[in-house]
Automatic annotation (TrEMBL):
Compartments where located: Cell inner membrane
Biased composition (Low complexity): 17-31, 280-290
Gene name of the record: macB_3
Protein name per its UniProtKB record: Pyoverdine export ATP-binding/permease protein PvdT
Residues spanning the membrane: 602-627, 647-673, 685-710
């Protein structure tokens, strides 16, 4: 498409001709001599029908029309005549049902949707009767939108939009929203938007229909000035007064062009006075713009910010593939992100309520996962503190064997045999007496007396607080010595004092205290009072037996517990002649508890995930409502050059942004809840892992994409003309 030598939004008033150029008077009033200029737009036998079959309605019928570069044409007709449909076809907002429409010699039917969007973006400018501005954007923001889709840099957009608005007398209204401006001001904003990317062809649909007479005259003056600068102006109106401004008037009725005539006396007599007044207004506006908009710097003129003026034909437009590669980059994503943010910020309450479902879901998932992970670690640590890497040999087939007490084959030599194995770290034979009465001075209480071997501290993972443990010689001679637990010490000596060397009575057996062992702080350990004595002493002096009740074997670090367990079973079975014992492997318990904890965490997370899915459905629902509410906005964006994928990207980013913000709030809230739980209930451990947080972010992103895809796709599939027609 050929671009005129200058794409200025407006020349300075002093440089503007007072009246637009008019074509040479033809020989007949109803025909136009078109030999002077090449055809820009050509319609041949164009028809447009809606519906199918017997219910089809034909709006345009066999339209033949040629519009040449630089013309100012008015398409006039009553309501229902088809003039708006013709404008939509001319502006590539709609496609003809039949016939041929050529722009600069290229058939529009051969162009893809992206190519049509590029035409609207780079060569067409639309001025609508109802302005069609986006309410959440400022005047400058509305004007910049076409340049956003054209890939213009932010700085260049700001400079050009400010210059255009300044030339149109709105330099002091850059930050005003449409609701803060009059109808005439809004229409001037729409004119500036139409010129943002050059606006070679201006399509004005009833440009003065919603304005008072004064504002209408100003708008028509601007259009005439644009025509004088080389723009092709197409007016669509039912008002003969508006059509009188054009040099050529095309009358349409019942979908057919009934008359195509030259206007020999266009309304140019009113331009001179309006031009003088408007020059004064522009001067004041530009002065205000210099102070308010650019901090004292002179706003760049339209000439300085205009696109390049090289001749560009339709065939030289960048290919669709090239544009896709450019728009797939970060600049386009950042612009879509910015537009999505502004759209969400303009409906804060709705955005907040939409986020609420995601916040609840993410908070539930992260909190339950953190509590589950903390509980699992607490359990495993407690088990590890009880008996790290140990295997216990007990009498009978299992814990429920009623005949286990009758078995007498577990003997001290079995402990010696196991101690000699290569996988053994330490061994402690065990004889557990029943609860006995323990007395010290005036204190009399119940306590558990445990008969253990000389290596019981190592085998059971116990640590001394003071004193020492008993040795092998004390075991062999059945020494009456004891190592007591800290709980027992506090009970027997509430006033403190040194227990070492003190005598306590276990039943009628006097025991000399030689050490104090630290009690374990574990949910699996009884808080009862414990006394540890040599197993030989417990067997002969308290239990009255010679056999053992259990043997605790600690496995060497790094040796597989399962292999050691198999070795223990093999050795003792050979020694006993049969398997009259069973083993209890703490490693198996740890794995079992770990699996159970994971299953419980997954179950709780699944329950919490339901709320997250419900939140995602809420996002999808709100996005569908948003698409319905913003149909006109979608139509505006499509009309000024947005492609389907641009609309899809923006709405999809909005959905993902809502979910990511909800996810971030959910993570912070879950962390706060975790700290509160840990403060109120110290026994409950809360552990936030990087994997959990990463999963939360991923989950929020997936929910955002899943919930936003269908609404975004629905928005992208809207035709511009259908979207603009909806209110």
């Amino acid at each position: 498409m050929h671009v005129r030598p200058s794409t200025d939004a407006m020349a300075p008033a002093s440089d503007m001709p007072e009246t637009p150029d008019t074509p040479e008077t033809p020989n007949t009033p109803d025909t136009l001599d078109t030999s002077a200029a090449a055809p820009l737009l050509r319609l041949s036998g164009v028809a447009r029908s809606f519906g199918e079959g017997v219910g089809a309605v034909t709006v345009l019928r066999d339209v033949e029309l040629v519009i040449r570069r630089g013309e100012m044409v008015a398409i006039m007709g009553p309501s229902g005549s088809g003039k708006s449909t013709l404008m939509n076809v001319l502006g590539c907002l709609d496609r003809a049902s039949s016939g041929c429409y050529e722009i600069d010699g290229r058939d529009v039917a051969s162009l893809s949707d992206d190519d049509l969007a590029a035409l609207r973006r780079e060569h067409f400018g639309f001025i609508f009767q109802r302005y069609h501005l986006m309410g959440h954007l400022t005047a400058q923001g509305n004007v910049e939108v076409p340049a956003v889709y054209a890939g213009t840099s932010k700085t260049a957009r700001a400079q050009r939009s400010a210059a255009l608005l300044g030339r149109l007398g709105l330099g002091g209204h850059l930050s005003h929203r449409p609701s803060q401006m009059s109808g005439g001001q809004q229409q001037r904003v729409s004119i500036a938007r139409a010129l943002m990317n050059g606006g070679d062809i201006i399509l004005a649909d009833e440009p003065t229909g919603a304005l008072d007479s004064r504002s209408g005259l100003e708008v028509m003056q601007i259009l005439c000035e644009l025509h004088a600068r080389g723009h092709t102006i197409i007016l669509v109106t039912h008002d003969p007064g508006v059509a009188a401004w054009a040099q050529r008037v095309i009358e349409i009725a019942d979908g057919r062009i009934v008359r195509d005539r030259v206007n020999e006396t266009p309304r140019t007599d009113e331009l001179a006075a309006l031009t003088r007044e408007r020059t004064q207004t522009q001067s004041r506006s530009q002065s205000q713009s210099q102070e308010d908009t650019h901090a004292g710097q002179v706003a760049p003129t339209a000439e300085e910010t205009a696109p390049q003026t090289d001749d560009v034909t339709l065939q030289k437009l960048p290919s669709v593939e090239a544009r896709r590669r450019w728009f797939a980059g970060w600049p386009k994503f950042s612009e879509s992100l910015s537009m999505a943010w502004h759209a969400l910020a303009s409906h804060r309450l709705r955005t907040g309520l939409t986020m609420l479902g995601i916040v609840i879901g993410i908070t539930s998932v992260v909190s339950l996962s953190a509590i589950g992970e903390g509980t699992k670690r607490r359990v495993l640590n407690d088990i590890g503190s009880i008996a790290p890497n140990t295997i216990t040999v007990l009498r009978g087939r299992d814990f429920n064997d009623d005949k286990a007490a009758e078995i007498r084959t577990l003997l001290p030599r079995d402990a010696e045999l196991l101690a000699a194995q290569p996988y053994t770290d330490s061994v402690s034979p065990q004889v557990n007496a029943r609860t006995v009465r323990v007395r010290f001075g005036r204190i009399d209480t119940d306590a558990q007396v445990h008969g253990e071997g000389a290596n019981f501290l190592r085998a059971n993972g116990l640590k001394l607080a003071r004193g020492r443990g008993f040795d092998t010689s004390e075991v062999e001679r059945q020494a009456q010595v004891a190592v007591i637990g800290e709980n027992a010490l506090r009970k027997l000596m509430p006033n403190g004092g040194d227990p070492i060397g003190q005598i306590v009575l276990a039943g009628s057996l006097p025991l000399r205290v030689i050490g104090v062992v630290r009690d374990r702080s574990s949910m699996f350990v009884s808080r009862s009072l414990n006394l540890y004595v040599p197993w030989s002493t417990a067997a002969s002096r308290l239990a009255g037996q010679q056999h053992l009740e259990a043997i605790t074997v600690r496995i060497l670090d790094g040796h597989p517990p399962s292999a050691a367990e198999a070795g223990i079973v093999r050795v003792l079975t050979r020694a006993h002649g049969n398997k009259d014992f069973f083993t209890f492997n703490m490693d198996t318990v740890v794995k079992s508890i770990s699996r159970t904890s994971q299953m419980l965490t997954l179950l709780l997370s699944f329950v919490a995930l339901i709320s997250l899915v419900v939140g995602g459905i809420g996002v999808a629902n709100i996005m569908l409502v948003s698409v319905t509410e913003r149909t006109r906005e979608i139509g505006i964006r499509r009309a000024i050059g947005a492609r389907r994928q641009d609309i899809l990207r923006q709405f999809l980013i909005e959905a993902v942004l809502v979910c990511l913000m909800g996810g971030a709030v959910g993570v912070v809230l879950s962390y706060a809840i975790g700290q509160l739980v840990a403060f109120v209930v110290p026994q409950v451990a809360v552990v936030f892992s990087v994997n959990t947080l990463a999963a939360a972010v991923l989950c929020a992103s997936v929910i955002g994409v899943a919930s936003g895809w269908w609404p975004s796709r629905s928005a992208a599939r809207l035709d511009p003309v259908d979207a603009l027609a909806r209110e």
